[in-house]
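in:
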């Protein structure tokens, strides 16, 4: 039996730059991997054909999920996949904007690809990953990256760009629907007569994805275009953000389509970051503190 740990990601800034004819939204975002919270995949070869997924977490379709999709997608390219039983222990909350399902799929793809007689190269494996989910190719790299398009344009960036910054991640029990978030965003955009695509982090004057990729450390600034519409449905998330700012965070934003909230504290505010993590920990929340 093998145990594979699948970490999560947070979005440090998310801009919607356009919508494709098929309805998919194009993004410009800084993805940052975190080791916690995490999922664990307990993988056992069965000697039989196909994949069986076991999981006790309510709401997961055991017959149709990112693991079954990843296995099926790879099987189309690699004919000699071993039969597996995967017991999934979920630590990454669903509907939190942390990419748990995509991370699980990438972890399984990497594990399988390392055990077949003719493994795919990195590009081919990324193509398989993209058919599973927009975030899945990122998790194959699992390093800080600027991600654009629908997730297929991935540019690794320096992992020391935020060295010393304290990150506090607050996960509530609120499940934010990704399709609903984008539908609400589209409706708000239409109502405001705003031109789609004008919200791009790649500004002419900076040529970089917001503050972080430009190398500027004096000002922390992150923004998520989906935040307003998600907060309108879940005002408790706005309250969490306000509390983090009040407790000394230099920048706070929702991750992905929600519902998790990520806060950045400058290195000299490490005491405040610890206090914020302790104060916001509660029965209905899980709080994770990291030093980047």
């Amino acid at each position: 039996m093998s145990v594979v740990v699948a970490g999560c990601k947070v979005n440090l800034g998310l801009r919607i730059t356009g919508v494709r004819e098929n309805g998919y939204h194009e993004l410009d975002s800084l993805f940052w991997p975190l080791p916690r919270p995490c999922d664990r995949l307990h993988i056992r070869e069965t000697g039989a054909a196909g994949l069986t997924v076991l999981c006790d977490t309510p709401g997961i379709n055991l017959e149709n999920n990112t693991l079954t999709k990843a296995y099926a997608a790879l099987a189309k390219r690699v004919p000699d996949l071993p039969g597996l039983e995967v017991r999934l222990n979920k630590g990454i909350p669903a509907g939190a904007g942390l990419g748990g399902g995509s991370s699980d799929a990438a972890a399984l793809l990497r594990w399988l690809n390392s055990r077949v007689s003719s493994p795919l190269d990195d590009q081919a494996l990324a193509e398989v990953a993209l058919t599973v989910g927009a975030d899945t190719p990122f998790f194959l790299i699992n390093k800080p990256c600027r991600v654009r398009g629908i997730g297929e344009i991935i540019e690794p960036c320096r992992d020391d760009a935020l060295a010393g910054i304290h990150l506090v991640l607050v996960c509530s029990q609120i499940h934010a629907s990704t399709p609903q978030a984008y539908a609400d965003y589209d409706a708000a955009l239409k109502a405001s007569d705003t031109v789609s695509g004008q919200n791009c982090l790649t500004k002419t004057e900076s040529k970089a994805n917001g503050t972080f990729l430009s190398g500027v450390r004096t000002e922390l600034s992150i923004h998520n275009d989906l935040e307003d519409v998600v907060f309108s449905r879940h005002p408790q998330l706005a309250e969490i953000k306000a509390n983090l700012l009040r407790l000394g965070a230099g920048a706070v934003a929702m991750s992905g389509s929600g519902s998790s909230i990520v806060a950045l504290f400058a290195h000299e505010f490490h005491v405040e970051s610890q206090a914020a993590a302790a104060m916001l920990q509660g029965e209905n929340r899980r709080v994770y503190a990291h030093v980047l």
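note: The first helix runs from residue 66 to 77.
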